Amino acid sequence: ASRTLKKMRGILLVLFVISVFESVRSDKHYYASDPNIGIIGRSQIVINPNTKAASLQYGWSGVRLVFSFKGSTKIGIKMTDRDNIHALSLDGSEKGNIVFTSNSTTIDQILFKNLDPSVSHSVQMFRLTESFYGVSSLEEIYLDDGATLLPSTLEVSCSGSKPNYNTAGAAWHYATCKDRRIEFLGDSITCGFGNGQLGPCTATNLNELANKAWGFLTGSKLYAQTHINCWSGIGAVRNYGGDFGISPNVLFNAYWPNALSGAGYPWDFESWVPNAVVINLGTNDFGGGPLSPSKEQYVSGYLRIMKDARAKYHSNPSLKFFLGCGPMSNKYCPFLTTIISEASALGMDATLVDLQVYNGDNKLIGCAGHPSVAGHALMAQRASDSIQKAFKWN
């Protein structure tokens, strides 16, 4: 899972199906700390020491913001970002992307206009790009004077296998079943690196689509809320091209404990407790250089991740682990059987998920040997089948 990055330069590019970006002239604003702003994924409220203004910051793949409102003909935002891309949707329909370039840019713009103020609306911003590209920062949202920002109900009761949308208010388009939460820990594969284009190609922020990657797709199939914590080039004990043994900057000890992926804000693991932790780490441990960890090093390091997760999520004694293998490498697959056996001896419930979906069809491969959107879809089917079987989420 090596990374070849192509930095984007220039002015802010905005790509929409509809014409949306105009200067904001809204009469009512809500700060990013407003409790009615819905958030799925890790985030942190950060106070500017000079202005004392609060911003909602986030850095992991697949983080989603949901704004539900009524009584407004438009909605606008003020935010600062660079290199990251967000997909937009309005009332459940995709409406294009916001694309930031390498020049840090603050926008103060209307997202959608000419809306019917007599009905409620929901807007979702879905971060497509991974932590490598830095932190996104939302400062404010804007509505017409007299409009109301509604609570964004994101988890609702389920009728059978699907959310009961009648109870979800304006955010029904994005609601998931209560008590269905899945966390993904992985590398560039889990981030959706290069999945938006068929190979051969160079992976950039423009062809990384977290909303078409196997983690989010797996959650969607099961109507489960997902946290996708991934970083390209990362391994369980060795990063891509690194020395054998324990790398100093691996997901376990450098990134996973943090709210924004970078250092500075520790994540509150008690604030969001999953039913399942899905791990796919190993491609980089045994790739990109002549040196690889021994079986004992890999197994020991992998088990540390699992034991740490069990400790952090101690409030859920029924926590289940799903260990993915593939599709870019199968070198670590035999070791997962050992890990599952040793985890079972420690009282942990772990299941192997075979993600080796490559079958000679080039349409399954995106940039730099990574799975394409079609490849991710097959991976998601296998993962969701395994999780559904374990939890009986019909």
- Uncertain ranges: 2-26
Radius of gyration: 21 Å
Beta strand %: 25-35%
User: Into which percent range does the helicity of residues fall?
Assistant: 10-25%
Calculate the mean pLDDT score and round it: 88
Helix-and-strand structural type: alpha+beta
> What overall form do the CA principal axes indicate?
globular
| Main sheet characteristics | 7 strands, antiparallel
Number of strands: 25
Question: Could you tell me how far the N terminus lies from the C terminus, measured between alpha carbons in angstroms?
Answer: 34 Å
The DSSP helix count reads: 6
What does this structure look like?
It is built from 6 helices and 25 strands. By secondary structure, it is an alpha+beta fold. The strands form 6 sheets. Strands 1, 4, 7, 9, 10, 12 and 14 form a 7-stranded antiparallel beta sheet that branches. Strands 2, 3, 5, 6, 8, 11 and 13 form a 7-stranded antiparallel beta sheet that branches. A 5-stranded parallel beta sheet has the order 20-19-23-24-25, with helices on both faces. A hairpin with a 1-residue loop joins strand 21 and strand 22. Helix 2 packs across helix 6 (373-391) and helix 4 crosses helix 5 (333-345).
